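Q: what does this look like with adenosine-5'-triphosphate bound?
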Amino acid sequence: MISPNPFTPQSGWEPKIFGGRNPELEIFKSNLDDAASVRPSHLVVLGEWGAGKTSLLKQFKRISQENGFPAAFCGISRFTEKNKALDAIHLIAEEMVLGFPEVDAARKGLLDLFAKRKSLSNAQVQFTKFLLELWKALDTKLAVVLLDDAQNFMEVSNTVDILRAVLSSDDIIKETRFLFILSSTPAGWASFIDKHDPVGRFFRKRLSAENLKETEAMATIDMTLKGTGVVFEDSVRKNIFEYTGGHPYEVQLLASHLYDSQIEGEVSLRAWDSALNKTLKELGRDYFEYLLSKASDREKDLLRILAEEKKPITIRDFTTMMIVGKRAKKFPIANIKNFLYRLEVKGLVKRSEANGFYIPDQMFSEFITRIASE
Ligand SMILES: Nc1ncnc2c1ncn2[C@@H]1O[C@H](COP(=O)(O)OP(=O)(O)OP(=O)(O)O)[C@@H](O)[C@H]1O
Ligand SMILES: [Mg+2]
Protein backbone atom coordinates (compact mmCIF):
# COMPACT_ATOMS: atom_id res chain seq x y z
CA MET A 1 0.00 0.00 0.00
CA ILE A 2 1.16 3.48 -0.84
CA SER A 3 0.77 5.96 2.03
CA PRO A 4 -0.92 9.33 1.62
CA ASN A 5 1.40 12.12 0.48
CA PRO A 6 3.80 12.85 3.37
CA PHE A 7 5.06 16.21 2.07
CA THR A 8 3.74 19.46 3.53
CA PRO A 9 3.67 22.08 0.82
CA GLN A 10 1.81 24.71 2.80
CA SER A 11 3.06 27.83 4.39
CA GLY A 12 3.09 27.28 8.15
CA TRP A 13 2.74 23.48 7.98
CA GLU A 14 5.44 21.83 9.94
CA PRO A 15 7.32 19.28 7.87
CA LYS A 16 7.05 15.60 8.74
CA ILE A 17 10.85 15.55 8.86
CA PHE A 18 12.48 18.72 10.07
CA GLY A 19 15.77 18.92 8.15
CA GLY A 20 19.00 20.76 8.94
CA ARG A 21 19.00 23.76 11.27
CA ASN A 22 21.35 22.13 13.77
CA PRO A 23 23.37 25.29 14.48
CA GLU A 24 20.17 27.31 14.96
CA LEU A 25 18.70 24.73 17.32
CA GLU A 26 21.93 24.62 19.32
CA ILE A 27 22.03 28.40 19.60
CA PHE A 28 18.44 28.42 20.72
CA LYS A 29 19.08 25.77 23.38
CA SER A 30 22.03 27.59 24.85
CA ASN A 31 20.07 30.84 24.69
CA LEU A 32 17.28 29.14 26.59
CA ASP A 33 19.70 27.97 29.31
CA ASP A 34 21.16 31.46 29.64
CA ALA A 35 17.72 32.99 29.74
CA ALA A 36 16.71 30.69 32.59
CA SER A 37 19.92 31.06 34.59
CA VAL A 38 21.26 34.52 33.78
CA ARG A 39 19.07 36.78 31.72
CA PRO A 40 17.14 36.55 28.48
CA SER A 41 18.62 37.86 25.27
CA HIS A 42 15.80 38.23 22.82
CA LEU A 43 16.27 36.76 19.36
CA VAL A 44 15.23 37.48 15.82
CA VAL A 45 14.91 34.83 13.12
CA LEU A 46 15.27 36.27 9.64
CA GLY A 47 14.19 34.47 6.50
CA GLU A 48 12.66 35.10 3.10
CA TRP A 49 9.27 33.75 1.99
CA GLY A 50 8.93 30.03 2.59
CA ALA A 51 12.39 29.69 4.12
CA GLY A 52 11.09 27.95 7.23
CA LYS A 53 10.65 30.69 9.86
CA THR A 54 7.33 29.44 11.20
CA SER A 55 8.54 25.84 11.35
CA LEU A 56 11.69 26.88 13.19
CA LEU A 57 9.71 28.90 15.73
CA LYS A 58 7.41 25.93 16.32
CA GLN A 59 10.46 23.78 16.90
CA PHE A 60 11.69 26.35 19.44
CA LYS A 61 8.33 26.18 21.17
CA ARG A 62 8.61 22.44 21.47
CA ILE A 63 12.15 22.61 22.87
CA SER A 64 11.10 25.24 25.42
CA GLN A 65 8.22 23.12 26.67
CA GLU A 66 10.38 20.03 26.69
CA ASN A 67 12.67 21.91 29.08
CA GLY A 68 9.77 22.81 31.32
CA PHE A 69 9.24 26.39 30.14
CA PRO A 70 5.80 27.40 28.92
CA ALA A 71 5.88 28.88 25.42
CA ALA A 72 3.27 30.79 23.43
CA PHE A 73 3.28 30.91 19.65
CA CYS A 74 1.74 34.13 18.33
CA GLY A 75 1.04 34.66 14.65
CA ILE A 76 1.04 38.32 13.71
CA SER A 77 -1.47 39.38 11.10
CA ARG A 78 -1.07 42.26 8.73
CA PHE A 79 -1.76 45.76 10.02
CA THR A 80 -2.60 48.78 7.93
CA GLU A 81 -1.77 52.44 8.41
CA LYS A 82 -5.25 52.84 9.90
CA ASN A 83 -4.15 50.78 12.90
CA LYS A 84 -2.32 52.11 15.93
CA ALA A 85 0.50 50.49 17.87
CA LEU A 86 -2.02 49.82 20.64
CA ASP A 87 -3.99 47.55 18.28
CA ALA A 88 -0.84 45.59 17.56
CA ILE A 89 0.20 45.38 21.21
CA HIS A 90 -3.32 44.28 22.05
CA LEU A 91 -3.11 41.51 19.49
CA ILE A 92 0.17 40.30 20.97
CA ALA A 93 -1.42 40.25 24.44
CA GLU A 94 -4.45 38.36 23.18
CA GLU A 95 -2.31 35.80 21.42
CA MET A 96 -0.17 35.38 24.52
CA VAL A 97 -3.18 34.72 26.74
CA LEU A 98 -4.45 32.13 24.27
CA GLY A 99 -0.98 30.70 23.73
CA PHE A 100 -0.22 29.98 27.37
CA PRO A 101 -2.68 27.27 28.36
CA GLU A 102 -1.13 27.53 31.84
CA VAL A 103 -2.98 30.78 32.36
CA ASP A 104 -6.25 29.60 33.85
CA ALA A 105 -9.60 30.86 32.71
CA ALA A 106 -10.08 33.15 35.68
CA ARG A 107 -6.91 35.04 34.85
CA LYS A 108 -7.97 35.62 31.29
CA GLY A 109 -9.52 38.84 32.57
CA LEU A 110 -5.93 40.02 32.08
CA LEU A 111 -6.91 41.57 28.82
CA ASP A 112 -9.22 43.97 30.61
CA LEU A 113 -6.04 45.83 31.39
CA PHE A 114 -6.29 47.23 27.93
CA ALA A 115 -8.63 50.17 28.06
CA LYS A 116 -9.26 51.12 24.46
CA ARG A 117 -7.64 54.54 24.76
CA LYS A 118 -5.31 54.77 21.85
CA SER A 119 -2.12 56.59 22.53
CA LEU A 120 1.48 55.57 22.36
CA SER A 121 2.36 55.88 26.05
CA ASN A 122 -0.74 53.88 26.86
CA ALA A 123 0.38 50.99 24.75
CA GLN A 124 3.69 50.91 26.58
CA VAL A 125 2.24 51.31 30.06
CA GLN A 126 -0.53 48.85 29.43
CA PHE A 127 1.70 46.19 27.95
CA THR A 128 4.05 46.52 30.92
CA LYS A 129 1.16 46.02 33.35
CA PHE A 130 -0.07 43.12 31.28
CA LEU A 131 3.28 41.34 31.33
CA LEU A 132 3.61 41.85 35.09
CA GLU A 133 0.18 40.35 35.70
CA LEU A 134 0.65 37.54 33.22
CA TRP A 135 3.93 36.67 34.85
CA LYS A 136 2.21 36.15 38.20
CA ALA A 137 -0.36 33.90 36.56
CA LEU A 138 2.28 31.80 34.85
CA ASP A 139 4.22 30.63 37.88
CA THR A 140 7.40 29.57 36.08
CA LYS A 141 11.12 30.35 35.95
CA LEU A 142 11.00 31.41 32.33
CA ALA A 143 8.31 31.91 29.71
CA VAL A 144 9.00 31.97 25.98
CA VAL A 145 7.03 34.08 23.50
CA LEU A 146 7.35 33.43 19.78
CA LEU A 147 6.11 36.24 17.55
CA ASP A 148 5.87 34.99 13.98
CA ASP A 149 5.90 37.39 11.01
CA ALA A 150 6.88 40.58 12.79
CA GLN A 151 7.24 42.23 9.37
CA ASN A 152 3.45 42.53 9.50
CA PHE A 153 3.98 45.33 12.01
CA MET A 154 5.48 47.39 9.19
CA GLU A 155 2.59 49.87 9.09
CA VAL A 156 2.70 50.26 12.86
CA SER A 157 6.45 49.99 13.09
CA ASN A 158 6.70 51.65 16.51
CA THR A 159 5.16 48.44 17.92
CA VAL A 160 8.58 46.84 17.78
CA ASP A 161 10.09 49.82 19.53
CA ILE A 162 7.41 49.67 22.22
CA LEU A 163 8.20 46.02 22.70
CA ARG A 164 11.85 46.93 23.11
CA ALA A 165 11.04 49.70 25.60
CA VAL A 166 8.80 47.45 27.66
CA LEU A 167 11.24 44.55 27.72
CA SER A 168 14.09 46.78 28.77
CA SER A 169 12.19 48.56 31.52
CA ASP A 170 13.34 48.03 35.10
CA ASP A 171 10.12 46.49 36.36
CA ILE A 172 10.01 43.91 33.64
CA ILE A 173 13.67 43.01 34.06
CA LYS A 174 13.37 42.73 37.84
CA GLU A 175 9.99 41.09 38.19
CA THR A 176 9.65 38.82 35.17
CA ARG A 177 11.56 36.49 32.90
CA PHE A 178 10.16 36.41 29.38
CA LEU A 179 12.25 35.38 26.39
CA PHE A 180 10.95 36.83 23.12
CA ILE A 181 11.76 35.33 19.72
CA LEU A 182 10.60 37.27 16.68
CA SER A 183 10.61 36.17 13.08
CA SER A 184 10.65 38.54 10.16
CA THR A 185 11.63 38.90 6.54
CA PRO A 186 15.05 40.56 6.24
CA ALA A 187 13.54 43.56 4.44
CA GLY A 188 10.90 44.05 7.14
CA TRP A 189 13.51 43.90 9.86
CA ALA A 190 15.81 46.32 8.06
CA SER A 191 12.98 48.83 7.91
CA PHE A 192 12.39 48.63 11.67
CA ILE A 193 16.04 49.22 12.39
CA ASP A 194 16.05 52.07 9.94
CA LYS A 195 13.19 53.82 11.66
CA HIS A 196 13.95 52.94 15.28
CA ASP A 197 17.65 52.31 15.64
CA PRO A 198 17.60 51.11 19.29
CA VAL A 199 15.63 48.08 18.08
CA GLY A 200 18.68 46.73 16.25
CA ARG A 201 20.82 47.08 19.35
CA PHE A 202 18.22 45.45 21.54
CA PHE A 203 17.48 42.34 19.47
CA ARG A 204 21.15 41.75 18.92
CA LYS A 205 21.16 38.02 18.35
CA ARG A 206 20.00 37.04 14.91
CA LEU A 207 19.51 33.67 13.34
CA SER A 208 18.71 33.15 9.74
CA ALA A 209 16.56 30.54 8.08
CA GLU A 210 18.60 29.77 4.97
CA ASN A 211 18.11 27.13 2.31
CA LEU A 212 18.90 23.57 3.33
CA LYS A 213 22.28 22.21 2.28
CA GLU A 214 22.37 19.43 -0.29
CA THR A 215 22.91 16.64 2.26
CA GLU A 216 20.20 18.09 4.50
CA ALA A 217 17.66 18.39 1.70
CA MET A 218 18.40 14.86 0.48
CA ALA A 219 18.13 13.41 3.97
CA THR A 220 14.85 15.25 4.49
CA ILE A 221 13.39 13.83 1.28
CA ASP A 222 14.63 10.30 1.96
CA MET A 223 13.38 10.26 5.53
CA THR A 224 10.04 11.74 4.54
CA LEU A 225 9.62 8.95 1.98
CA LYS A 226 10.62 6.22 4.39
CA GLY A 227 7.88 3.68 4.94
CA THR A 228 5.53 5.26 2.38
CA GLY A 229 6.08 2.65 -0.30
CA VAL A 230 7.36 5.31 -2.71
CA VAL A 231 10.93 5.82 -3.89
CA PHE A 232 12.40 8.63 -5.99
CA GLU A 233 14.98 7.62 -8.58
CA ASP A 234 18.41 9.04 -7.81
CA SER A 235 18.34 11.45 -10.77
CA VAL A 236 15.02 12.81 -9.49
CA ARG A 237 16.43 13.43 -6.01
CA LYS A 238 19.43 15.21 -7.53
CA ASN A 239 17.20 17.32 -9.73
CA ILE A 240 15.10 18.43 -6.78
CA PHE A 241 18.13 19.94 -5.14
CA GLU A 242 19.52 21.36 -8.34
CA TYR A 243 16.30 23.20 -9.13
CA THR A 244 15.29 24.33 -5.64
CA GLY A 245 18.74 25.00 -4.19
CA GLY A 246 17.33 23.51 -0.99
CA HIS A 247 14.61 26.17 -0.52
CA PRO A 248 12.37 24.44 2.07
CA TYR A 249 9.02 25.40 0.58
CA GLU A 250 10.08 24.66 -3.00
CA VAL A 251 11.48 21.28 -1.93
CA GLN A 252 8.22 20.30 -0.24
CA LEU A 253 6.04 21.44 -3.13
CA LEU A 254 8.09 19.81 -5.87
CA ALA A 255 8.55 16.58 -3.90
CA SER A 256 4.84 16.52 -3.21
CA HIS A 257 3.96 16.72 -6.92
CA LEU A 258 6.56 14.09 -7.73
CA TYR A 259 5.12 11.83 -5.05
CA ASP A 260 1.68 12.13 -6.60
CA SER A 261 3.04 10.91 -9.92
CA GLN A 262 4.42 7.59 -8.66
CA ILE A 263 3.77 4.53 -10.76
CA GLU A 264 3.93 1.31 -8.78
CA GLY A 265 5.74 3.23 -6.06
CA GLU A 266 8.46 4.55 -8.38
CA VAL A 267 9.11 8.11 -9.43
CA SER A 268 11.42 8.40 -12.40
CA LEU A 269 12.57 11.27 -14.60
CA ARG A 270 9.57 10.64 -16.85
CA ALA A 271 7.47 12.33 -14.18
CA TRP A 272 9.77 15.32 -13.96
CA ASP A 273 8.42 17.82 -16.48
CA SER A 274 4.84 17.53 -15.48
CA ALA A 275 5.59 17.74 -11.75
CA LEU A 276 7.87 20.72 -12.33
CA ASN A 277 5.23 22.55 -14.35
CA LYS A 278 2.59 22.02 -11.68
CA THR A 279 5.03 23.24 -9.07
CA LEU A 280 5.89 26.35 -11.07
CA LYS A 281 2.24 27.21 -11.62
CA GLU A 282 1.61 27.02 -7.90
CA LEU A 283 4.72 28.99 -7.07
CA GLY A 284 3.48 31.55 -9.57
CA ARG A 285 0.23 31.93 -7.71
CA ASP A 286 1.96 31.95 -4.33
CA TYR A 287 4.75 34.35 -5.03
CA PHE A 288 6.51 34.45 -8.41
CA GLU A 289 3.79 36.38 -10.22
CA TYR A 290 3.98 39.04 -7.58
CA LEU A 291 7.77 39.06 -7.76
CA LEU A 292 7.72 39.35 -11.54
CA SER A 293 5.12 42.12 -11.45
CA LYS A 294 7.72 44.30 -9.74
CA ALA A 295 9.72 44.39 -12.98
CA SER A 296 8.95 46.88 -15.77
CA ASP A 297 8.59 45.58 -19.35
CA ARG A 298 12.20 46.47 -20.20
CA GLU A 299 13.41 44.86 -17.01
CA LYS A 300 11.42 41.75 -17.90
CA ASP A 301 13.24 41.57 -21.24
CA LEU A 302 16.52 41.38 -19.34
CA LEU A 303 15.15 38.87 -16.84
CA ARG A 304 14.06 36.62 -19.66
CA ILE A 305 17.58 36.62 -21.08
CA LEU A 306 19.06 35.83 -17.68
CA ALA A 307 16.55 33.02 -17.22
CA GLU A 308 17.36 31.48 -20.58
CA GLU A 309 21.13 31.82 -20.27
CA LYS A 310 21.21 30.37 -16.73
CA LYS A 311 24.54 32.06 -16.00
CA PRO A 312 25.75 35.48 -14.83
CA ILE A 313 25.81 38.12 -17.56
CA THR A 314 27.72 41.39 -17.35
CA ILE A 315 26.39 44.78 -18.44
CA ARG A 316 28.80 44.73 -21.33
CA ASP A 317 27.61 41.31 -22.51
CA PHE A 318 24.03 42.52 -22.36
CA THR A 319 24.88 45.54 -24.45
CA THR A 320 26.61 43.44 -27.11
CA MET A 321 23.69 41.00 -27.16
CA MET A 322 21.24 43.77 -27.92
CA ILE A 323 23.31 44.97 -30.87
CA VAL A 324 24.35 41.73 -32.61
CA GLY A 325 23.28 38.09 -32.64
CA LYS A 326 19.98 36.32 -32.18
CA ARG A 327 18.83 38.59 -29.36
CA ALA A 328 19.56 41.87 -31.16
CA LYS A 329 16.63 44.23 -30.78
CA LYS A 330 15.74 47.85 -30.40
CA PHE A 331 16.53 48.46 -26.77
CA PRO A 332 17.62 51.54 -24.79
CA ILE A 333 21.10 50.14 -24.22
CA ALA A 334 22.30 53.21 -22.33
CA ASN A 335 19.85 52.24 -19.59
CA ILE A 336 20.79 48.58 -19.23
CA LYS A 337 22.86 49.34 -16.16
CA ASN A 338 19.94 51.16 -14.50
CA PHE A 339 17.51 48.37 -15.28
CA LEU A 340 19.83 45.78 -13.78
CA TYR A 341 20.51 47.79 -10.66
CA ARG A 342 16.80 48.30 -10.18
CA LEU A 343 16.18 44.58 -10.57
CA GLU A 344 18.81 44.03 -7.92
CA VAL A 345 17.18 46.48 -5.50
CA LYS A 346 13.83 44.75 -6.06
CA GLY A 347 15.45 41.45 -5.12
CA LEU A 348 14.93 39.76 -8.50
CA VAL A 349 18.57 39.43 -9.48
CA LYS A 350 21.90 39.32 -7.69
CA ARG A 351 25.34 40.46 -8.73
CA SER A 352 28.35 38.18 -8.54
CA GLU A 353 31.95 39.12 -7.78
CA ALA A 354 32.88 39.56 -11.41
CA ASN A 355 29.91 41.91 -11.77
CA GLY A 356 27.73 39.51 -13.67
CA PHE A 357 24.02 39.59 -12.89
CA TYR A 358 22.08 36.39 -12.34
CA ILE A 359 18.76 35.05 -11.03
CA PRO A 360 19.50 33.49 -7.64
CA ASP A 361 16.47 31.20 -7.59
CA GLN A 362 16.55 28.59 -10.33
CA MET A 363 12.84 27.88 -9.86
CA PHE A 364 12.09 31.53 -10.56
CA SER A 365 14.21 31.26 -13.69
CA GLU A 366 12.25 28.21 -14.80
CA PHE A 367 9.03 30.05 -14.02
CA ILE A 368 10.06 32.88 -16.33
CA THR A 369 11.00 30.61 -19.23
CA ARG A 370 8.27 27.97 -18.87
CA ILE A 371 5.24 29.74 -17.45
CA ALA A 372 5.48 33.50 -17.67
CA SER A 373 6.49 33.48 -21.33
CA GLU A 374 3.65 31.21 -22.44
N1 LIG B 1 13.69 22.51 8.41
C1 LIG B 1 12.81 22.12 7.47
N2 LIG B 1 12.92 20.90 6.90
C2 LIG B 1 12.04 20.49 5.97
N3 LIG B 1 11.00 21.22 5.54
C3 LIG B 1 10.83 22.45 6.07
C4 LIG B 1 11.72 22.95 7.07
N4 LIG B 1 11.31 24.19 7.41
C5 LIG B 1 10.22 24.44 6.68
N5 LIG B 1 9.91 23.40 5.88
C6 LIG B 1 8.77 23.34 4.93
O1 LIG B 1 8.89 24.48 4.09
C7 LIG B 1 7.66 25.14 3.91
C8 LIG B 1 7.73 26.56 4.43
O2 LIG B 1 7.95 26.54 5.82
P1 LIG B 1 7.44 27.70 6.79
O3 LIG B 1 6.00 27.93 6.60
O4 LIG B 1 7.95 27.34 8.13
O5 LIG B 1 8.30 28.91 6.20
P2 LIG B 1 8.10 30.46 6.47
O6 LIG B 1 9.44 31.09 6.33
O7 LIG B 1 7.38 30.64 7.76
O8 LIG B 1 7.16 30.83 5.25
P3 LIG B 1 6.22 32.12 5.03
O9 LIG B 1 7.10 33.09 4.29
O10 LIG B 1 5.11 31.58 4.20
O11 LIG B 1 5.80 32.59 6.39
C9 LIG B 1 6.61 24.28 4.61
O12 LIG B 1 6.06 23.43 3.64
C10 LIG B 1 7.41 23.48 5.61
O13 LIG B 1 6.79 22.23 5.82
MG1 LIG C 1 5.60 31.65 8.17
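The CA atoms of residues 28 and 60 lie 7 Å apart. The beta strands are 43-46, 71-75, 143-148, 178-184, 205-208, 231-232, 266-267, 350-351, 357-358.
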